[in-house]
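Same chain as my last thread, 163 residues:
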Amino acid sequence: MPLAEVAQRLERRLELDTLYADYAACLDTDALERWPEFFTEDCHYRVTSAENYEAGLPLGLIYATSKDMLKDRVSALREANIYEPQRYRHLISGIRIDGEDAGTLDVTANFLVVRTMQDGAMILFAAGRYVDRIVHSSDGWKFARKIAVLDSRQIDTLLAIPI
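reply #2:
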């Protein structure tokens, strides 16, 4: 493989690692007003169970089809919803490019989310994989589609914060 191609692949890998690290940091530091900026205007965001994903069922526990819907979700979290303060820690690994076509990448990655409550109690809140479509724009890589596929069908009723 020519050196220029190797350098291009490494650069893209670093850009994706940075995208996922910045995404996790945004959620983990409660900077939710920045969260929609990781997405394209006509994005698709969904949190669903593995069974529903594999069965091709379209709806999810959280479902949005535009950046404006993501902004509305953040507004609701800040202004309307009442829930106990908590902290999240996203661990994202195994980022893999599954397909590529003209500036668009199909990417999967594993995630674990640990939730810490105000009293210090910690639980493994969610585990699963992201099934993402990422596009390159003038501001860098953005999620055109992000589907959080949860390994467990037992879902905490307090799924307020995005995964």
